[in-house]
Amino acid sequence: MRKLSITLLLIGISFMTMEANNYSTDHKTRIYFKKWNERQKTVIFLPIEATIEENNIEVQFFEKSNEPATFQVKDKNGNIVFQDVVIPDKLEIYKIDLDGFKAGSYELFYIEESIAFVGEFQIE
């Protein structure tokens, strides 16, 4: 009986801990990319991962490149509201400041020499 009580107590504590983790203050929104203007049924390596944290888009590179890449943010009307050219470095986290962006839908473009990816995100 005592073992059963201890087991139930441990199970209950683990569920409370999981629930507390769901309400933690570290909320990141992931931006999912797709290949732009092409329909392919092949697996494509995405060289970056982008998340929105607080008022920034944080981009983690997965490979180092000697070739420049372009970031663009376009609003729902297709207007470019941000553009920058960078040399990807997997040791750095590249940040795009979203201060001054109005609430609405946006697209984040990542453009390399021979390939482009687009991800959609919202600002509330």
UniProtKB/TrEMBL annotation:
The positions making up the signal sequence are: 1-19
Instruction: Please name the taxonomic classification of the source.
Output: Bacteria, Pseudomonadati, Bacteroidota, Bacteroidia, Bacteroidales
**Protein name as annotated:** DUF3244 domain-containing protein
Q: What keywords were assigned to this record?
A: Signal
Entry-linked Gene3D superfamilies:
2.60.40.3080
InterPro entries for this protein: DUF3244
